Amino acid sequence: MIVTLIVAWIIFTILWKVLKTTVSNALTIAAILVLLNIGFGITPQDIWHQIIQFGNTLSQIRGSK
User: Fold this and answer.
1) What is the pTM of this model?
2) Which residues contact residue 37 at a Cβ distance below 8 angstroms, ignoring those fewer than 6 apart?
3) What are phi and psi of 41, to 5 degrees?
């Protein structure tokens, strides 16, 4: 019984840390997106397009070798 509680507490602690980190990262990314949109007029779609374009460029570079 005690061992089960200890294991449950360890798992809960790990999951709590992961959840806090995930929420923190999500809020940071959201703040960056809002600042880019307000400051420079860059939309999330513009950023997504650049990410896709970067992936395609990397694929072309790897394919040409």
Assistant:
1) 0.70
2) 43, 44
3) 75, 20
